[in-house]
Amino acid sequence: KRGDSVVCSNCGTQNPSGQRFCGACGAPLTRTCPSCGGSNDPAFRFCGTCGSPLEATAVPAPVTPAAPVAERRLVSVLFADLVGFTSLSEHRDAEEIRELLTRYFETSRQIVTRYGGTIEKFIGDAVMAVWGAPVAQEDDAERAVRAALDLTEAVAGLSAEIGAPGLQARAGVATGEAAVTLGATGQGMVAGDLVNTASRVQTAATPGAVFVGDRTRRATEAAVVYEDAGAHELKGKAEPVALFRAVRVVGGRGGSLRSTGLEAPFVGRDRELRLIKQVLHSTAEEHRAHLVSVVGIAGIGKSRLSWELFKYVDGLADVLLWHRGRCLAYGDGVAYWALSEMVRGRAGILEDEAPGVALAKLRDVLASNVPDPEERRWLEPRLAQLLALEETERASPDRADLFSAWRLFFERLAEQTPVILVFEDLQWADEALLDFIEYLLEWSRSHPMFVLTLARPELTERRSTWGAGKRNFTSQYLEPLSNDAMTELLSGLVPGLPEDLRQRILDRAEGVPLYAVETVRMLIDRGQLRLEGSRYLPTGPVDQLEVPETLQALISARLDGLPPDERRLLQRAAVLGKSFSLASVDALGEGPNATEPVLAGLVRKEFLTLHADPRSPERGQYGFLQDLVRKVVYETLAKRDRKALHLAAAAWLESSWSADEGEVAEVVASHYLEAYLAAGEGADAEAIRTKARDALVRAGERAGSLAAQVEALRYFRRGAELTDDATTRAGLLERAGIMARTASRTEEALPLFEESERLFISAGLTHRAARVSARIGELLWWGSGKVDVAIARMERSFEVLAHEEADESLASLAAELARLQFFAGDIDRAADRVEFALQAAETLWLPAVLSEGLNTKHLILSARNRPEESLA
What we know:
Elements: E1 5-7, E2 14-16, E3 31-32, E4 39-40, E5 69-83, H1 85-91, H2 94-114, E6 118-123, E7 126-131, H3 140-162, E8 168-182, E9 190-191, H4 193-204, E10 210-213, H5 214-220, E11 224-232, E12 241-249, H6 270-286, E13 290-295, H7 302-315, E14 321-326, H8 337-347, H9 355-369, H10 373-386, H11 399-414, E15 419-424, H12 431-443, E16 449-455, H13 458-462, E17 473-477, H14 483-493, H15 499-509, H16 513-525, E18 529-532, E19 535-538, H17 551-560, H18 564-576, E20 579-580, H19 582-587, H20 592-604, E21 608-610, E22 622-624, H21 627-635, H22 639-657, H23 665-679, H24 685-705, H25 709-721, H26 726-742, H27 746-762, H28 766-784, H29 787-801, H30 808-824, H31 827-844, H32 847-863, H33 867-871
Parallel strand pairs: 8-10, 13-16, 13-17, 14-15, 15-16
Antiparallel strand pairs: 1-2, 3-4, 5-7, 5-8, 6-7, 8-9, 10-12, 11-12, 18-19, 20-22, 21-22
Helix pairs in contact: 2-3, 9-10, 10-11, 14-16, 15-16, 16-17, 17-21, 18-20, 18-21, 22-23, 23-24, 24-25, 25-26, 26-27, 27-28, 28-29, 28-30, 29-30, 30-31, 30-32, 31-32
């Protein structure tokens, strides 16, 4: 207000006092209080009469929650409680008991949640959980039983930790219809007779056991083994109720991948499996990469640990991306074979898939998991190179570039769902794969990636620094099982085995479970055991049975009992490796009509297994149950038969895989090499040696294209050993030296180059000798700092090679010489060499040489006091 006038806050016009609206723009000159009706200046925020806010505030209408809806649903109810808790409470401090209960409740909640259940309530030391409400799944009953088994195992571990062996959990699971209150949480969600029944089943269970009703058993028996627990009088039930004890999980979800043959009880490794599970969940929850390395001798139980982990992961409610890859026992390993199996499995590419189909599947998996189109375009050729898909442009053989792409692929997967990578038989891994695993662990440490490696002790002999100094690395060495654990294993397999025979087996097994299992298989082969339910029982007296002294002798005894056709097929399969396809073993034998029935018989007798995992590139293939069995079978082959079978295997691979550039180039080379070693002084030995050498060269080129320089070095050097021609040998030694130099193995590269130079000189090939001499000069400079010697050798080489048409190696030599001459103080000679290098690099478009040359020219111009020109 100004005097008796009122200024409009909208347009600034002065209006006479008492007016309610502006005469110029019509805007209100006063604000009416919504509470008392008093007039206020438009700039006021609160009423001058009553103090109420002048801004209108909307009061939200109260929301009336929807009334809970009750439905009848098929659910599974779990009850569990602690046995021995009351007596423990009498002898422990109250705070210790409270902490124990807190850990028990938290563990129960974690386990139930991981299996997709809902905690209904805690009552004292008891827990009640429900599956099928509020959301139902088709495998609710199975997940409830899995959770119950895990809970009893977790309490057993907890009791061992606190030194209370009498503390155990018991659980009961019942499945049926119940009244479910949708929208309710906590107590009161499920009601009805089923709840009382589950509670009574739990009460009937023995300490440490899980009891279930008949309906639960029928819904879950595909994945869980049960024992009859008899009929029990349950409170409130007019008739006795048949109950069953859940023994163990024997398959994936719904019984997938369940073995059709003998599976021993899982004994003596509970602590190791518990640790692996803990690390797995920590990896997922904390988004931290972690590696668990499991090491142990053959037959000690490494693969069984992996199988138990798979069954566990497959039963969880949350999806985890499982990848499995095996390292092949060819030479010192096939470059990145296990890694390529994982990528193939994720993309759904079978091993014998046509390149065009495989490439389309690779593009599909990239489109599904890598949202950025630029990243997809960058990843595709690098993953395709790993899989040897020839229809795509080949990426640069730069290790950092390839490793980065492969790592990024798994990181993009892990950003959506935690990733599990299981590397089997890592003792046969190539050096490059070991490098990649360590690289992945370091660079992807902030991603939920769980890496599990299984290896024999030879791994630590090859790489003594495996896992050294890494925070996200856990090592487990599997010791032989205790006598009690082995006794439990044998009792679980053959309850009626005579005591003296059991003791002989235990004495000779020395804690190796495979020995006990193979003994039982031998008894089955001889008809001295029969299957009843899930156990094997003696058909008669077996007291006088002779038990072989060693595991190898035991396997040999089983082989001796096979019919000739089954034995011959196993020998053919042993040449192909631990896994093989029907087509490959057909190619080495009598044809499919004769092969398939024999394979089926060997699967039944548990020499072989059939891969059924739809996520594996080996789906539909056969494999030896144990590599030790394959090794024993292979050693029964005469050299003549070995040669013939290896040649047939190599020919089949070349015809079916286009092996000149394919992923199996190294496998083909191994077959030809083994055939040559078995050929001796035969008439065809020279021809086989030539094929072996050529295959080794292709294998070296394949390994080099994947930046696996150590493997390429090995192949080129082995190829050089298989030739008598001096020129060919010199060329292969030069290529081996290049791989050694690239892998920073100077001490290996120098003698290879020196021998190559000597052979070229003896053959009168001075130009090729000069190129090798230049490489030696570079090594002398970089490896030992002998600048003068290096320059003299490289200058002599340059003078010889300068008369040839310039290529990349000559341009690189000139650029390197320019740099060395500059540091040696010969500026003029450095300027001459750098101009030669730059001209060649421009003509041939060699960006790396061009960059190096320009850097050296900058130094030369700066030394000549031409700073502006040097900066240009």
